[in-house]
Write a structure and sequence with these properties.
single chain; 133 residues; alpha+beta; Glutaredoxin; four-stranded mixed beta sheet; 7 helices; 4 strands; 14% strand; disordered N terminus
Length: 133
């Protein structure tokens, strides 16, 4: 349970290495098929499907901090600043301690598993000195 004001306003934003919209999605799929594009976060949340994995949806719904997944062209200003131009990436935002909590390399280490992703994410959040989960 979160205890301080900053933690109460906290959210997690996971940024895909792709643009949203029909053209963005199509560009990503073509790049993936051709081997020119890769997104570890896409593999974790969707695999080879258009629909998010059931386990991803369940874990998003039950995670103690709101989790939102966005495409590069859908980032708000706080996410853009915290992500430092990286994607895919996962950022912690509370308006005061905004920063990256998972890099592309860390996302790759999840081996496309929503379970591993959320376990690692929870471990990261719990280790933050200012987070009071």
């Amino acid at each position: 349970m979160m205890k301080n004001k900053d933690s109460e306003n906290a959210r997690i934003v996971a940024v895909y290495n792709a643009n949203g919209g029909i053209m963005g999605e199509l560009s990503y799929v073509i790049g993936k098929v051709l081997g020119n594009t890769h997104c570890a976060l896409c593999d974790i949340s969707h695999g080879n499907s258009i629909k998010a994995k059931a386990q991803w949806r369940q874990r998003v719904a039950s995670f103690p901090i709101p989790v939102q997944a966005v495409h590069i062209n859908e980032m708000d200003k706080a996410t853009q600043q915290a992500s430092q131009g990286q994607s895919p990436v996962v950022v912690y935002l509370d308006g005061k301690n905004d920063h990256i909590v998972m890099t592309d390399e860390e996302l790759e280490s999840c081996q496309a598993s929503p379970q591993l992703f959320f376990d690692k994410l929870l471990e990261k959040i719990e280790s933050l000195s200012f987070s009071k989960l």
